[in-house]
């Protein structure tokens, strides 16, 4: 017998005429402007109910939300209606059972993330039980598997074109731009458990067992998937061991997440624990709108070129603000290539000294390079002269070595070097850029502009963690994590659009109030000026009344 196919039903809320307990309520159809796609190709038909056909106890759903003070969905729906979902809709073929409308699916997901709901099953319950979600979705009730497949099917659009479209719309609503941007990153724990961490020997044993299982059952998809995952973990482990060896560290201590190889073991924020994690990064403007975002397994600086490319596609970027963690050759080169002014201190932006601090030895930034005679002057006022040059190559960049012969009798030697031959410095071609940036960050005006960075970008991650619950990713792998973070960033941008709408409404209310107040003052003044004046009477004491 042929196996039965389990087809999931399309569920929507009942939208026939509903009656109040006391009287009948008529719902008038209202026109609604929706961003339509222009295409000559036949389009699929979607399940997209109109929420204005829904009512609660005979009262239209929109009126109920307004009366209950649930205004967020009422403001979000026009925003989502202004966006184009043509790229999503083009992936569906005409004919067959109509799928849920992409506009409604995205509305459910982003509305849930705004409330800190990111689990697929919790989103399923939200779509069925939350009246605000009904207004955004039209009352469709997709189950968790449908929501998951939707995210997987449209992953590329959600992280690129649609994200950029929503960011542009948010910039327009907030009346902000991309002239000055601030960048930052954080560490978010991966989904995989820390108990899945393996060193080289344990990984070899697990790989051998997986190979035996795959050979015994060649048709078993789960066994093949497990084998492929362990092979990726082995390749990732070898790559990390080579990097550790190049740094002079013991490669035998290197670990890899066996079921999520791309996650990197690294310290957590505000904690000394090491967990498999990723590093998401954002660029935000002065209105705290995220204009670009990306995720890297372990680096915040590697994604800077891509972030600036996406930001420049939305408008001109003149200044980029980064903290001391971005004071590197790659970021300096990227800013120069994009013709962007970079404001980035080498050390902590506290007090008067923003240069790099170190408890191990006096940092290189304390040595002053003198181009006239090609020497360095150390904090002890001694000269470091040029000794030899390394051309560089595959092993690294070219540099010139400078050394001093007066270190043995220097009172600062214990703070400067432990070498018997004295302190040496390596000068790279990029050091000229770093020295110019250090001098720039010592000036009052650049420092004043740089101080905006903290208020521009750091509250972004505070809201992502505190209000949206992004303390741990729910999807595995770098590709899945990028989609999840892009969804969180879009939900965050929706909150910025809501704040702008709130302030705009408050401004209009205050304007109307002040106009009414001014009219009342004018009427009062005109009334008092028309009153008859009393004659001046002098009393016996000589006072005037």
Write the layout of secondary structure elements.
Elements: E1 55-56, E2 59-60, H1 61-67, H2 71-81, H3 86-89, H4 102-114, H5 120-129, H6 131-137, H7 144-153, H8 155-159, H9 161-174, E3 180-185, E4 188-189, E5 197-198, H10 200-216, H11 221-246, E6 256-257, E7 264-267, E8 274-284, E9 290-296, H12 304-314, E10 319-321, H13 329-337, E11 341-343, E12 368-370, E13 375-377, E14 383-390, E15 399-403, H14 413-416, E16 424-428, H15 431-441, H16 444-450, H17 452-466, H18 477-529
Parallel strand pairs: 3-10, 10-11
Antiparallel strand pairs: 1-2, 3-8, 4-8, 5-6, 7-8, 8-9, 12-13, 13-14, 14-15, 15-16
Helix pairs in contact: 2-6, 4-18, 5-6, 5-7, 9-18, 10-11
Report on this model:
It is a single chain. With 545 residues, this protein is an alpha+beta fold. The protein is 43% helix and 12% strand. It contains 18 helices and 16 strands. The chain has helices at 61-67, 71-81, 86-89, 102-114, 120-129, 131-137, 144-153, 155-159, 161-174, 200-216, 221-246, 304-314, 329-337, 413-416, 431-441, 444-450, 452-466, 477-529; strands spanning 55-56, 59-60, 180-185, 188-189, 197-198, 256-257, 264-267, 274-284, 290-296, 319-321, 341-343, 368-370, 375-377, 383-390, 399-403, 424-428. Strands 3, 4, 7, 8, 9, 10 and 11 form a 7-stranded mixed beta sheet that branches. The chain has a 5-stranded antiparallel beta sheet with strand order 12-13-14-15-16, with no helix packed on it. Strands 1-2 form a two-stranded antiparallel sheet. α2 packs parallel to α6, α4 packs across α18 (477-529) and α9 (161-174) packs parallel to α18. It starts with 54 loop residues before the first strand and ends in a 16-residue tail after the last helix. Mean pLDDT is 85; it is low at 1-5, 18-31 and 539-545.
